[in-house]
Model the fold of this input.
Amino acid sequence: MSVVSHAREAAGQPTPLRHDWSRSEIEALFALPMPELLFRAASVHRQHFDPAEVQVSTLLSVKTGGCPEDCSYCPQAQRYHTGVEATKLMETDAVLEKARQAKAAGATRFCMGAAWRSPKDRDVPKVAAMIREVKALGLETCATLGMLTGDQARALKDAGLDYYNHNLDTDPEFYDSIIQTREIQDRLTTLEHVRDAGLKTCCGGIVGMGETGRQRAGLLRTLANLPSHPDSVPINRLVQVEGTPLHGTEEIDPFDFVRTIAVARILMPRSMVRLSAGRQDMSDELQAMCFLAGANSIFYGEQLLTTGNPDTERDMALFARLGLRPMQVHVDAEHHDHPGTAHVDIIELPQHPRSFAA
Ligand code: SAM
Ligand code: DTB
Ligand code: SF4
Done:
Protein backbone atom coordinates (compact mmCIF):
# COMPACT_ATOMS: atom_id res chain seq x y z
CA MET A 1 0.00 0.00 0.00
CA SER A 2 1.33 3.43 -0.89
CA VAL A 3 2.22 6.02 1.71
CA VAL A 4 -0.51 8.25 0.20
CA SER A 5 -3.31 5.70 0.55
CA HIS A 6 -2.20 4.86 4.07
CA ALA A 7 -2.27 8.57 4.98
CA ARG A 8 -5.78 8.89 3.49
CA GLU A 9 -7.01 6.01 5.65
CA ALA A 10 -5.45 7.41 8.78
CA ALA A 11 -7.26 10.71 7.99
CA GLY A 12 -10.56 8.81 7.60
CA GLN A 13 -10.80 9.40 3.83
CA PRO A 14 -11.93 6.43 1.77
CA THR A 15 -9.26 4.98 -0.51
CA PRO A 16 -10.45 4.24 -4.04
CA LEU A 17 -11.20 0.57 -4.75
CA ARG A 18 -8.32 -1.16 -6.52
CA HIS A 19 -8.26 -4.18 -8.81
CA ASP A 20 -4.57 -4.16 -9.66
CA TRP A 21 -2.89 -5.58 -6.58
CA SER A 22 0.44 -7.34 -7.03
CA ARG A 23 1.38 -10.39 -5.01
CA SER A 24 4.39 -8.61 -3.52
CA GLU A 25 2.28 -5.65 -2.31
CA ILE A 26 -0.03 -8.12 -0.56
CA GLU A 27 2.85 -10.09 0.91
CA ALA A 28 4.16 -6.80 2.30
CA LEU A 29 0.82 -6.26 4.07
CA PHE A 30 1.02 -9.77 5.58
CA ALA A 31 4.55 -8.96 6.77
CA LEU A 32 3.52 -5.84 8.72
CA PRO A 33 3.85 -5.98 12.49
CA MET A 34 0.48 -7.19 13.80
CA PRO A 35 -0.42 -3.91 15.63
CA GLU A 36 0.18 -1.93 12.44
CA LEU A 37 -1.76 -4.38 10.24
CA LEU A 38 -4.73 -4.41 12.65
CA PHE A 39 -4.70 -0.60 12.85
CA ARG A 40 -4.78 -0.26 9.07
CA ALA A 41 -7.52 -2.87 8.67
CA ALA A 42 -9.61 -1.32 11.46
CA SER A 43 -9.21 2.14 9.85
CA VAL A 44 -10.48 0.84 6.49
CA HIS A 45 -13.32 -1.02 8.22
CA ARG A 46 -14.61 2.22 9.79
CA GLN A 47 -14.65 4.05 6.48
CA HIS A 48 -17.47 1.86 5.19
CA PHE A 49 -19.12 0.10 8.13
CA ASP A 50 -20.13 0.48 11.74
CA PRO A 51 -17.53 -1.84 13.33
CA ALA A 52 -20.06 -2.91 15.98
CA GLU A 53 -22.33 -4.48 13.32
CA VAL A 54 -21.95 -8.05 12.13
CA GLN A 55 -23.98 -9.56 9.32
CA VAL A 56 -25.54 -12.90 10.30
CA SER A 57 -26.19 -15.72 7.80
CA THR A 58 -27.53 -19.22 8.42
CA LEU A 59 -26.61 -22.17 6.22
CA LEU A 60 -28.71 -25.16 5.26
CA SER A 61 -27.56 -28.13 3.23
CA VAL A 62 -30.57 -28.73 0.95
CA LYS A 63 -28.82 -31.62 -0.85
CA THR A 64 -26.07 -33.38 1.04
CA GLY A 65 -23.23 -35.67 -0.05
CA GLY A 66 -22.71 -37.95 -3.05
CA CYS A 67 -20.82 -35.24 -4.95
CA PRO A 68 -18.79 -36.44 -7.97
CA GLU A 69 -16.04 -33.80 -7.48
CA ASP A 70 -12.69 -34.44 -5.75
CA CYS A 71 -12.20 -31.26 -3.64
CA SER A 72 -9.71 -32.65 -1.15
CA TYR A 73 -11.09 -30.69 1.80
CA CYS A 74 -14.71 -31.71 1.35
CA PRO A 75 -16.60 -34.30 3.40
CA GLN A 76 -19.36 -34.40 0.75
CA ALA A 77 -17.23 -35.81 -2.08
CA GLN A 78 -18.52 -39.31 -2.78
CA ARG A 79 -15.04 -40.75 -3.34
CA TYR A 80 -13.88 -40.12 0.25
CA HIS A 81 -15.17 -42.21 3.14
CA THR A 82 -16.30 -39.61 5.62
CA GLY A 83 -19.56 -41.11 6.90
CA VAL A 84 -21.65 -38.35 5.28
CA GLU A 85 -24.79 -39.95 3.84
CA ALA A 86 -26.03 -38.77 0.47
CA THR A 87 -29.56 -37.35 0.48
CA LYS A 88 -32.01 -36.16 -2.16
CA LEU A 89 -32.91 -32.51 -2.62
CA MET A 90 -35.06 -31.44 0.34
CA GLU A 91 -38.74 -30.56 -0.08
CA THR A 92 -39.54 -26.85 -0.07
CA ASP A 93 -41.71 -27.09 3.07
CA ALA A 94 -38.86 -28.62 5.08
CA VAL A 95 -36.48 -25.89 3.87
CA LEU A 96 -39.03 -23.23 4.83
CA GLU A 97 -39.33 -24.63 8.33
CA LYS A 98 -35.53 -24.30 8.76
CA ALA A 99 -35.61 -20.79 7.31
CA ARG A 100 -38.35 -19.75 9.77
CA GLN A 101 -36.24 -21.11 12.66
CA ALA A 102 -33.17 -19.24 11.38
CA LYS A 103 -35.13 -16.00 11.16
CA ALA A 104 -36.58 -16.47 14.65
CA ALA A 105 -33.03 -17.00 15.98
CA GLY A 106 -31.90 -13.69 14.46
CA ALA A 107 -30.39 -14.55 11.04
CA THR A 108 -31.04 -12.11 8.20
CA ARG A 109 -29.61 -14.15 5.33
CA PHE A 110 -30.38 -17.78 4.54
CA CYS A 111 -27.92 -19.71 2.39
CA MET A 112 -28.97 -22.95 0.70
CA GLY A 113 -26.12 -25.29 -0.27
CA ALA A 114 -26.16 -28.33 -2.54
CA ALA A 115 -23.38 -30.88 -3.04
CA TRP A 116 -23.50 -30.63 -6.80
CA ARG A 117 -20.79 -30.12 -9.42
CA SER A 118 -23.51 -28.07 -11.13
CA PRO A 119 -27.31 -28.19 -10.97
CA LYS A 120 -29.23 -30.13 -13.61
CA ASP A 121 -31.71 -27.96 -15.48
CA ARG A 122 -34.56 -29.98 -13.91
CA ASP A 123 -33.30 -29.02 -10.41
CA VAL A 124 -33.42 -25.28 -11.05
CA PRO A 125 -37.23 -24.78 -10.78
CA LYS A 126 -37.18 -26.70 -7.46
CA VAL A 127 -34.45 -24.49 -6.02
CA ALA A 128 -36.20 -21.43 -7.49
CA ALA A 129 -39.35 -22.35 -5.55
CA MET A 130 -37.30 -22.54 -2.31
CA ILE A 131 -35.73 -19.17 -3.00
CA ARG A 132 -39.09 -17.52 -3.73
CA GLU A 133 -40.61 -18.77 -0.50
CA VAL A 134 -37.59 -18.08 1.71
CA LYS A 135 -37.50 -14.55 0.31
CA ALA A 136 -41.20 -14.14 1.13
CA LEU A 137 -40.31 -14.73 4.80
CA GLY A 138 -38.29 -11.50 4.66
CA LEU A 139 -34.85 -13.12 4.58
CA GLU A 140 -32.05 -12.31 2.16
CA THR A 141 -31.41 -15.37 0.02
CA CYS A 142 -28.14 -17.00 -0.96
CA ALA A 143 -27.47 -20.26 -2.80
CA THR A 144 -24.37 -22.33 -3.49
CA LEU A 145 -25.06 -25.05 -6.03
CA GLY A 146 -21.81 -25.43 -7.97
CA MET A 147 -21.11 -24.21 -11.51
CA LEU A 148 -23.93 -22.30 -13.25
CA THR A 149 -24.73 -21.52 -16.87
CA GLY A 150 -25.87 -18.00 -17.72
CA ASP A 151 -29.49 -19.21 -18.12
CA GLN A 152 -29.42 -20.90 -14.71
CA ALA A 153 -28.04 -17.77 -13.05
CA ARG A 154 -30.81 -15.66 -14.63
CA ALA A 155 -33.49 -18.15 -13.54
CA LEU A 156 -32.26 -17.93 -9.93
CA LYS A 157 -32.19 -14.14 -10.12
CA ASP A 158 -35.77 -14.10 -11.42
CA ALA A 159 -36.81 -16.25 -8.45
CA GLY A 160 -35.54 -13.52 -6.11
CA LEU A 161 -32.05 -14.79 -5.29
CA ASP A 162 -29.88 -12.04 -3.78
CA TYR A 163 -26.42 -13.71 -3.49
CA TYR A 164 -24.68 -16.62 -5.15
CA ASN A 165 -21.77 -18.24 -3.28
CA HIS A 166 -19.03 -19.72 -5.42
CA ASN A 167 -15.56 -19.77 -3.91
CA LEU A 168 -12.17 -19.67 -5.60
CA ASP A 169 -11.02 -21.73 -2.63
CA THR A 170 -7.27 -21.19 -3.08
CA ASP A 171 -4.48 -19.53 -5.05
CA PRO A 172 -4.56 -20.44 -8.75
CA GLU A 173 -0.95 -21.69 -8.22
CA PHE A 174 -2.03 -24.16 -5.50
CA TYR A 175 -5.40 -25.06 -7.00
CA ASP A 176 -4.26 -28.25 -8.79
CA SER A 177 -2.99 -29.71 -5.51
CA ILE A 178 -6.50 -29.38 -4.04
CA ILE A 179 -8.97 -30.04 -6.89
CA GLN A 180 -8.48 -31.93 -10.13
CA THR A 181 -12.04 -32.38 -11.42
CA ARG A 182 -12.52 -28.75 -12.51
CA GLU A 183 -10.33 -25.80 -13.19
CA ILE A 184 -10.12 -22.42 -11.60
CA GLN A 185 -11.21 -20.94 -14.94
CA ASP A 186 -14.52 -22.84 -14.57
CA ARG A 187 -15.05 -20.99 -11.31
CA LEU A 188 -14.21 -17.63 -12.85
CA THR A 189 -16.67 -18.32 -15.67
CA THR A 190 -19.48 -19.13 -13.21
CA LEU A 191 -18.72 -15.93 -11.32
CA GLU A 192 -19.04 -14.03 -14.60
CA HIS A 193 -22.46 -15.59 -15.24
CA VAL A 194 -23.51 -14.69 -11.70
CA ARG A 195 -22.44 -11.04 -12.08
CA ASP A 196 -23.99 -10.77 -15.54
CA ALA A 197 -27.33 -12.01 -14.15
CA GLY A 198 -27.27 -9.11 -11.67
CA LEU A 199 -26.76 -11.35 -8.63
CA LYS A 200 -24.50 -10.28 -5.79
CA THR A 201 -21.42 -12.44 -5.43
CA CYS A 202 -20.24 -14.26 -2.34
CA CYS A 203 -16.76 -15.54 -3.08
CA GLY A 204 -13.83 -16.44 -0.86
CA GLY A 205 -11.68 -19.38 0.01
CA ILE A 206 -10.17 -21.72 2.56
CA VAL A 207 -6.91 -21.32 4.47
CA GLY A 208 -5.10 -23.95 6.50
CA MET A 209 -4.87 -26.40 3.58
CA GLY A 210 -1.04 -26.45 3.65
CA GLU A 211 -0.69 -23.39 1.40
CA THR A 212 2.32 -21.11 1.75
CA GLY A 213 2.09 -17.46 2.78
CA ARG A 214 2.75 -16.51 -0.83
CA GLN A 215 -0.22 -18.67 -1.88
CA ARG A 216 -2.47 -17.11 0.78
CA ALA A 217 -1.55 -13.72 -0.70
CA GLY A 218 -2.31 -15.16 -4.15
CA LEU A 219 -5.85 -16.18 -3.13
CA LEU A 220 -6.61 -12.69 -1.80
CA ARG A 221 -5.01 -11.09 -4.84
CA THR A 222 -7.24 -13.10 -7.21
CA LEU A 223 -10.34 -12.15 -5.20
CA ALA A 224 -9.45 -8.44 -5.04
CA ASN A 225 -8.55 -8.27 -8.74
CA LEU A 226 -11.90 -9.71 -9.92
CA PRO A 227 -13.81 -7.24 -12.15
CA SER A 228 -15.81 -6.25 -9.06
CA HIS A 229 -15.00 -7.11 -5.46
CA PRO A 230 -17.25 -9.90 -4.17
CA ASP A 231 -20.05 -8.43 -2.02
CA SER A 232 -19.30 -11.08 0.61
CA VAL A 233 -15.92 -12.72 1.11
CA PRO A 234 -16.06 -15.88 3.22
CA ILE A 235 -12.69 -16.75 4.76
CA ASN A 236 -12.94 -20.39 5.85
CA ARG A 237 -10.42 -22.09 8.10
CA LEU A 238 -10.20 -25.71 6.94
CA VAL A 239 -12.47 -27.98 8.96
CA GLN A 240 -10.48 -31.19 8.96
CA VAL A 241 -12.76 -34.17 8.39
CA GLU A 242 -11.53 -37.73 8.77
CA GLY A 243 -11.52 -39.55 5.44
CA THR A 244 -10.70 -36.45 3.36
CA PRO A 245 -7.17 -36.19 1.91
CA LEU A 246 -6.51 -32.99 3.88
CA HIS A 247 -7.26 -34.59 7.23
CA GLY A 248 -4.06 -34.33 9.29
CA THR A 249 -2.76 -31.20 7.53
CA GLU A 250 -0.68 -28.95 9.77
CA GLU A 251 -2.97 -26.27 11.17
CA ILE A 252 -2.57 -22.62 10.28
CA ASP A 253 -1.10 -20.39 13.00
CA PRO A 254 -4.15 -18.57 14.45
CA PHE A 255 -2.36 -15.23 14.03
CA ASP A 256 -1.87 -15.96 10.33
CA PHE A 257 -5.62 -16.56 10.13
CA VAL A 258 -6.21 -13.12 11.69
CA ARG A 259 -3.71 -11.60 9.24
CA THR A 260 -5.67 -13.15 6.35
CA ILE A 261 -8.87 -11.47 7.58
CA ALA A 262 -7.09 -8.13 8.03
CA VAL A 263 -5.53 -8.19 4.57
CA ALA A 264 -8.89 -9.18 3.00
CA ARG A 265 -10.47 -6.16 4.74
CA ILE A 266 -7.78 -3.81 3.41
CA LEU A 267 -7.97 -5.12 -0.16
CA MET A 268 -11.80 -5.24 -0.31
CA PRO A 269 -12.92 -2.34 1.90
CA ARG A 270 -16.64 -2.39 1.02
CA SER A 271 -17.14 -6.16 1.15
CA MET A 272 -18.58 -8.15 4.02
CA VAL A 273 -15.62 -10.22 5.19
CA ARG A 274 -17.04 -13.38 6.73
CA LEU A 275 -15.36 -15.27 9.53
CA SER A 276 -16.70 -18.55 8.12
CA ALA A 277 -16.01 -22.26 8.67
CA GLY A 278 -13.71 -23.21 11.52
CA ARG A 279 -15.20 -21.02 14.27
CA GLN A 280 -16.24 -23.95 16.42
CA ASP A 281 -12.65 -24.64 17.41
CA MET A 282 -11.71 -20.97 17.85
CA SER A 283 -11.55 -19.32 21.24
CA ASP A 284 -13.70 -16.26 21.88
CA GLU A 285 -10.46 -14.25 22.03
CA LEU A 286 -9.37 -15.40 18.56
CA GLN A 287 -12.80 -14.55 17.14
CA ALA A 288 -12.62 -11.14 18.82
CA MET A 289 -9.27 -10.53 17.09
CA CYS A 290 -10.91 -11.39 13.77
CA PHE A 291 -13.63 -8.78 14.40
CA LEU A 292 -10.92 -6.23 15.30
CA ALA A 293 -9.20 -7.17 12.02
CA GLY A 294 -12.33 -6.23 10.06
CA ALA A 295 -14.45 -9.39 9.88
CA ASN A 296 -18.10 -8.30 9.86
CA SER A 297 -20.10 -11.39 9.01
CA ILE A 298 -20.53 -14.90 10.42
CA PHE A 299 -22.38 -18.14 9.81
CA TYR A 300 -24.81 -18.51 12.67
CA GLY A 301 -26.57 -21.72 13.75
CA GLU A 302 -25.32 -25.01 15.13
CA GLN A 303 -24.54 -26.57 11.77
CA LEU A 304 -22.58 -25.39 8.72
CA LEU A 305 -23.35 -27.86 5.90
CA THR A 306 -22.26 -31.19 7.40
CA THR A 307 -20.01 -30.04 10.26
CA GLY A 308 -20.62 -28.11 13.47
CA ASN A 309 -20.65 -24.41 14.24
CA PRO A 310 -20.80 -22.69 17.65
CA ASP A 311 -24.11 -22.93 19.56
CA THR A 312 -26.38 -19.92 19.06
CA GLU A 313 -26.19 -19.25 22.81
CA ARG A 314 -22.40 -19.03 22.63
CA ASP A 315 -22.61 -16.58 19.72
CA MET A 316 -25.22 -14.44 21.45
CA ALA A 317 -23.08 -14.33 24.57
CA LEU A 318 -20.00 -13.44 22.48
CA PHE A 319 -21.88 -10.60 20.76
CA ALA A 320 -23.05 -9.33 24.15
CA ARG A 321 -19.56 -9.52 25.68
CA LEU A 322 -18.04 -7.65 22.73
CA GLY A 323 -20.87 -5.13 22.32
CA LEU A 324 -21.57 -6.35 18.78
CA ARG A 325 -24.97 -6.14 17.10
CA PRO A 326 -26.41 -8.14 14.20
CA MET A 327 -26.59 -5.98 11.08
CA GLN A 328 -30.25 -5.44 10.26
CA VAL A 329 -31.72 -5.65 6.77
CA HIS A 330 -35.28 -5.28 5.58
CA VAL A 331 -36.14 -7.43 2.61
CA ASP A 332 -39.20 -6.23 0.75
CA ALA A 333 -40.25 -9.49 -0.85
CA GLU A 334 -43.72 -8.23 -1.85
CA HIS A 335 -42.65 -5.46 -4.18
CA HIS A 336 -42.37 -6.65 -7.78
CA ASP A 337 -40.96 -4.54 -10.61
CA HIS A 338 -42.59 -6.83 -13.13
CA PRO A 339 -44.05 -10.31 -12.88
CA GLY A 340 -41.48 -12.89 -11.84
CA THR A 341 -38.84 -10.44 -10.61
CA ALA A 342 -38.66 -9.64 -6.93
CA HIS A 343 -37.19 -6.27 -6.03
CA VAL A 344 -35.24 -6.10 -2.78
CA ASP A 345 -34.91 -3.04 -0.61
CA ILE A 346 -32.31 -3.44 2.07
CA ILE A 347 -32.75 -0.82 4.76
CA GLU A 348 -30.91 -0.72 8.05
CA LEU A 349 -33.35 -1.05 10.95
CA PRO A 350 -32.70 0.42 14.40
CA GLN A 351 -34.03 -2.53 16.44
CA HIS A 352 -32.07 -5.66 17.40
CA PRO A 353 -33.89 -8.98 17.32
CA ARG A 354 -34.76 -10.28 20.78
CA SER A 355 -32.71 -13.40 20.21
CA PHE A 356 -29.53 -11.30 20.27
CA ALA A 357 -30.51 -8.91 23.07
CA ALA A 358 -27.90 -8.73 25.80
N1 SAM B 1 -20.85 -27.87 -4.32
C1 SAM B 1 -20.83 -26.47 -4.40
C2 SAM B 1 -19.45 -25.90 -4.67
O1 SAM B 1 -18.47 -26.57 -4.45
O2 SAM B 1 -19.40 -24.74 -5.11
C3 SAM B 1 -21.42 -25.78 -3.17
C4 SAM B 1 -21.12 -26.35 -1.80
S1 SAM B 1 -19.40 -26.36 -1.29
C5 SAM B 1 -19.49 -27.36 0.15
C6 SAM B 1 -19.15 -24.69 -0.74
C7 SAM B 1 -17.82 -24.33 -0.16
O3 SAM B 1 -17.69 -24.88 1.14
C8 SAM B 1 -16.57 -24.80 -0.84
O4 SAM B 1 -16.24 -24.04 -1.97
C9 SAM B 1 -15.52 -24.62 0.25
O5 SAM B 1 -14.97 -23.32 0.19
C10 SAM B 1 -16.34 -24.77 1.55
N2 SAM B 1 -15.94 -25.98 2.27
C11 SAM B 1 -16.26 -27.25 1.97
N3 SAM B 1 -15.70 -28.11 2.84
C12 SAM B 1 -14.99 -27.35 3.71
C13 SAM B 1 -14.16 -27.67 4.83
N4 SAM B 1 -13.94 -28.92 5.21
N5 SAM B 1 -13.58 -26.65 5.51
C14 SAM B 1 -13.78 -25.37 5.12
N6 SAM B 1 -14.56 -25.02 4.06
C15 SAM B 1 -15.14 -25.99 3.36
C1 DTB C 1 -18.48 -20.96 2.49
O1 DTB C 1 -17.53 -20.25 2.07
N1 DTB C 1 -18.41 -21.73 3.56
C2 DTB C 1 -19.65 -22.45 3.76
C3 DTB C 1 -20.56 -21.87 2.64
N2 DTB C 1 -19.67 -21.02 1.91
C4 DTB C 1 -21.33 -22.75 1.78
C5 DTB C 1 -19.51 -23.92 3.79
C6 DTB C 1 -18.54 -24.41 4.86
C7 DTB C 1 -18.60 -25.89 4.85
C8 DTB C 1 -17.78 -26.51 5.96
C9 DTB C 1 -17.81 -27.98 5.91
C10 DTB C 1 -19.16 -28.59 6.08
O2 DTB C 1 -19.91 -28.24 7.02
O3 DTB C 1 -19.51 -29.51 5.30
FE1 SF4 D 1 -18.71 -31.23 -4.27
FE2 SF4 D 1 -18.78 -28.66 -3.57
FE3 SF4 D 1 -17.74 -30.53 -1.91
FE4 SF4 D 1 -16.41 -29.89 -4.11
S1 SF4 D 1 -16.88 -28.52 -2.39
S2 SF4 D 1 -16.82 -31.98 -3.37
S3 SF4 D 1 -18.11 -29.50 -5.54
S4 SF4 D 1 -19.86 -30.36 -2.55
